[in-house]
Description:
two-stranded antiparallel ribbon, 13% helix
Amino acid sequence: MKLIDISHTLDGNTPVLPGDYKTALSRHKAIEKDWYNAYLLQSGLHTGTHIDMPMHLVDDDKYASDFPLDCFAGNGVLLDVRGENPIEMKPAYRERISARDIVLLYTGFAASYFREEYFTEYPDLSCELAEFLLSRKIKILGMDTPSPDHPPYTLHKELLRQGVFILENLTNLQALAGIGRFKVVAVPLKIRAEASFVRAFCIADE
């Protein structure tokens, strides 16, 4: 079994969407004078690698803590969509994607994670592909970008409205290239909120 980390590190340098809360992570107790170390984190939940619940953008009363664990793990499918904008539907996806899959979009945009254009120039999902994924009733749509679309987030809202969780700001998806079958795990904290940080990873056979 091989574990592949697809999460960004969360720290005080984690970039945030312009206008969002800046992440602050600091040590407020030090072992040399307090006999223990302790850190304080202040952050919005849509920071770093995280997952959106429907409540984020639609009228829904379920918090992250209300969903069963099996919503956040399953068979993974990697779509190599580098260079596409918008990200289009392809006939091959009809064979590759099944109900309850977790679909990951490898755009290559994680390379821009610490640059301003990461939050402004990322590719959009096409309406046709979004409609297909909804028809397949996938569990999660993940991507190495901050969102599947730009404001006013029409597709983002529709995916959440129909129960597809959105896993954002992934990285290291190139490590999955050439791996035929793998599992994805992206479990949120048991938190009463509309989103959560996750340590997303994939499980593949050696």
